Amino acid sequence: MPPASDQQRSPREIAIGLLARREYSRAELEHRLARKAVAPEEIDACLDALAEQGLQSDARFAESFVRSRVLRGQGVRRIKSELSQRGVEPALQRRAIAEVEAQENVDWFELAREVLARRFQTPGDSPRERARRERFLASRGFEFEQIRHALASL
């Protein structure tokens, strides 16, 4: 039997299909459903019901997202920026980061050092080379002190 088109599927079926693959923030699901021409009031009702049933949770999404970004070697600044783009509230961002830090024993200074060591063997012989390494870590979302620590440790 061929899969039903999005026109024949309810907003709930579409959302559950998306959530079956990975966690989504409420804002992401809202955007996806709106792109499929679902009425705004239907989207709100659907997402409220999914949240009540525990099928969608911004807190769970944020925690999963933070964990995946730490494994990719990204710093707090970049993680917060990406969570904001996905519609996660700042308080929830801070809570998710703190939760992952505690569970995974994340040391941002050590993570910055590891990320730098994977990409570069030396801290750079010239100011230009050091600046290149600093920009690399800054683009990954690390704080100034973490960048300095990573360069000093390399």
Automatic annotation (TrEMBL):
It comes from the Bacteria. Its main location: cytoplasm. It is found in: Cytoplasm. Coiled coil: none annotated. Keywords: Cytoplasm. Residues 12-48 form the RecX first three-helical domain. The keyword Cytoplasm applies. The keyword Cytoplasm applies. Residues 57-96 form the RecX second three-helical domain. InterPro entries: RecX_HTH_1st, RecX_HTH_2nd, RecX_HTH_3rd, Regulatory_RecX, WH-like_DNA-bd_sf. Residues 107-151 form the RecX third three-helical domain. Belongs to the RecX family. HAMAP family: RecX (MF_01114). Modulates RecA activity. This is Regulatory protein RecX.
